[in-house]
Amino acid sequence: MPAGSKLLPSQKVKISRGKVHIIEERCKGCGLCTDFCPKQVLHRSERVNEKGYHLVEVIEEPEKGKFCVACGFCQIICPEYAIWVEKREEYV
Predict the structure, then answer these.
(1) Among 16, 37, 49, 56, which lies 20 to 30 A Cα-Cα from 29?
(2) Number of C-beta neighbours around residue 49 at 10 A
(3) Which CATH fold topology does 20-91 show?
(4) E strand or H helix that includes residue 34
């Protein structure tokens, strides 16, 4: 698209978004997912699971550009298979 041009109302752009699901009983709080999240939406929580490990929580702040982009890094790097990402697409 040339510089300075605008989208027509009929043109929509797909933006990849995701919803992170955490299987709490599997999480061991290793922190790999929080370390490798490129958008820094995963954080260590004060909550603990039944095994006593601190859980990971998702904190999105879209107004600051912090939202899941469904990259899947957390899902790939989790040694306990405790995270999976549901990919969604939004249109802008």
Answers:
(1) 16
(2) 18
(3) Alpha-Beta Plaits (3.30.70)
(4) helix 32-36
